[in-house]
Design a protein that fits this description.
213 residues, mainly beta, Archaeosine Trna-guanine Transglycosylase, Chain: A, domain 4, 2 domains, 13 strands
Length: 213
């Protein structure tokens, strides 16, 4: 069983802790021209080598870099590194003691509602010992991001989408679907990277359950 890191935003960490998120979609880094699902975490990918004079599509089997069913993922999130005594008596503040320095601890920005003079550290810099959430992969698949269903969007832990409509009394917010909410969240994270909703990139679909906490 492998255990690999995976990054989540603060809002998605809160959904994990509330057990409201059980799926995540991640862009396949080298976007293919076509994919044939092969076996869950594996896919037959056709791609073009752009450095050739007369490029011809090639095919190869690729695996999900996050793992396969039965593997685990440890969550990286925005965190702080503080003296262990700083929030020891604070109700609701989760701390993880550094096993190599029992006087220091990790705390977490998601759900943190107290003032602090420390510097929050990016999730990408979180070490393994500081992770408080472990996920176990239950299934892996591939699809275009726009193929997400309404039920899958709920499993992604997003809020419903909305739009503002003019009324005789002013304006009101009208809720739409969870799929619209997922589209907005997806663009917030991926559009600047060139993998926005309209680009409809191929993604790994990873289903999981929270095993810790």
């Amino acid at each position: 069983m492998n255990c690999k890191p995976i990054l989540f935003s603060e809002s998605m960490v809160e959904q994990l802790l509330d057990l409201k998120k059980s799926q995540t979609r991640r862009v396949i880094k080298k976007q293919p021209i076509d994919i044939i699902p092969f076996r869950g975490d594996l896919a037959c990918v056709r791609w073009v080598a752009l450095d050739q004079i007369d490029p011809e599509p090639r095919a190869s089997i690729v695996g999900c870099r996050y793992g396969k069913p039965g593997d685990r993922l440890w969550v990286r999130e925005t965190w702080g590194y503080v003296p262990m005594t700083a929030y020891r008596a604070s109700v609701g503040v989760v701390q993880t003691i550094n096993p190599n320095d029992k006087y220091m601890a990790a705390i977490y920005k998601a759900g943190f509602d107290r003032a602090g003079s420390f510097r929050w550290r990016p999730s990408i810099h979180m070490p393994r010992w500081a992770s408080r959430i472990i996920l176990e992969i239950e299934f892996v698949g591939v699809q275009r991001v726009q193929h997400i269903t309404e039920r899958d969007a709920v499993e992604e832990g997003v809020a419903r989408g909305f739009y503002v409509r003019d009324t005789l009394d002013g304006q009101e917010m009208v809720q739409t679907s969870y799929r619209d909410g997922f589209k907005a969240k997806w663009n917030e994270i991926n559009e600047k990277r060139g993998f926005g909703w309209d680009a409809n990139p191929w993604v790994w679909v990873i289903g999981f359950r929270v095993v810790k906490p």
